[in-house]
Every structure is written in C-alpha cells, then in structure tokens.
Amino acid sequence: MKGIGLHTGQPTRLTFCPAPVNTGVYFVRTDLPGRPALAAKANHVRATQLATTLGGDYFSVSTVEHCLSTLAAFRIDNLIIELDGPEIPIGDGSAKIFLDALVNAGMTEQEQPRKYIYINQNIYFGDDSKYAYVAPYNGLRISSTIEFPHPKIGRQTLDIDINEQSFGRDIAPARTFGFLREVEAMRAKGLARGGSMANAIVLDSEAILNPEGLRFHDEFVRHKVLDALGDLVTLGLPLMGHVVLYKAGHDLMNRLVTKILNSTDHFRVIELGADLPDNPLEDQYLWA
Ligand SMILES: [Zn+2]
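That is the input. Now the predicted structure with zinc ion docked in place:
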C-alpha cells in the first residue's frame, strides 16, 4: 500500500511479506543502506508523543500502532513489514487500509502452536489521573474510558472482547482525532504535517469539523482501543488478559507493557490448547 504519514507528511510505500514460524513482527527500512530491521518490541519504543515510534541506532519507524493493532486482531504473529520511509501510511486515520490489505493478501495458519502471555495476577501502572492494568482473563478484552472536556467527546467507555469480527466491525473503522488549537503547536514540533480531515477527525473548541461527521457516536474511545491493541503487540507475544484503561495514551501503554514484561511472576507463557485454570470461556474467544 502507499500513502502519506500523519506526522511527516511523506509519501511511503509499505509491503507485507510472509515470514516463517517464530519470526515475530519486523519493520524493514528498504530506503536505507543495509535495509535495517527492527522488531516490534517494547524495548525499541523510542517516542510515544501522539504516536508510537520504534527506533534503532540511526533510524526509526513512526506511527506503527494502527498497523500493529490489525495484526493483533487477526492473530498475525510472523510478518516482515517493508517500508521505504520513516512513517507508516495513515490511510483514512483508521485501521481500514491494513485490514483490507491483509484480508486481500490472505493469511496462512502455520504449523506451530501459538504462544500467549497469560496473566495470573493483576499488573497495574498509573495514578488517579490516568492508569492501566491487566487482570487474568481467558481471552483478550479491553475496557477503555476516556474523558475530554469537549462537548462532542466528554466521557466515553468501551468494553470489548477482541477477535477478528469485533475488530473489523467495532474498532478498525474508528479514526484518529485531533484538536484544531493543537495543530499549530504540533506543526511547530514537526508533527501532524500530513494531517487533514481526510485522515483524522478534527475538532475545534465546540464542533467536529469533518463534513461527513462521525462513523460511531463514540468513535473517539473506539480509536483509543485500536491504539491500545496496537501498542500491546510490543509485548512480543499475544496477550491473554483483561486490559483496563483510564485516559491511556501511548506513553502509558508503553509503561504498562514494560511493567508486564518485568513482572515475570505475574504471568506465564502458555501454548494454544493448554489447559487453563478456571476456563469456562475457553471456546468463546481466541480458540476458534
Ligand atoms: Zn491512533
């Protein structure tokens, strides 16, 4: 697929390439000498301001979260993502371009049981102003609450079990959003150069400026779930747990992911098909 980046405004070409079992998800910068590659893992997260940027010694890949979110929902664990620029194309601001490309390309089940990070005990990060935690759950569930002092947003909550169907229907179409008053400040920092109403919901102090309006009345919190799901991919293995978020952004998600990875006594790595304790929901979620 081709498109411009939200923050750089640069046109970029992205190619999804098949990868063998146990490869993981890698980004490859094909425009740089030696084609440097970077795994989509938390220790490579270099910036979390407005988007998640992965960085190596002398290169980076920005705004990875919408692409990674789609991989999580479709259970794609092994993939090489080639990119000829510094930022993933933004498309229409949702996950739709990635979903369409992957569904058109098709996916293959590989001959290895899928491994999961299975949460045994709650892991918490945050304070009263914003927090994130993950609790034991036999599936992947995200409950997110946002609060913006804006008449078109306010307080919104979404509680959803993640699977291909729910993602495609309820999450993937939700677009990123930004406030007009922040655009000038963002541009001064070199961000949002590609942003427009073609790839974001734009709000002034009172209204939504996009003539087409919203895709969902609560599109904002749906997009936050999209972002969170993408950031969870940096765990390196799919998560089995209930993620609860209050005013979470990319920075909080990166801190939660890092804390999970450091809390080795709070999770265990299981294989698909393993017997789980207290597992009445086993057949409803990721096991189909
Ligand atoms: Zn986003």
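The pocket of zinc ion is lined by residues 65-66, 176, 223, 227 (CB under 6 Å).
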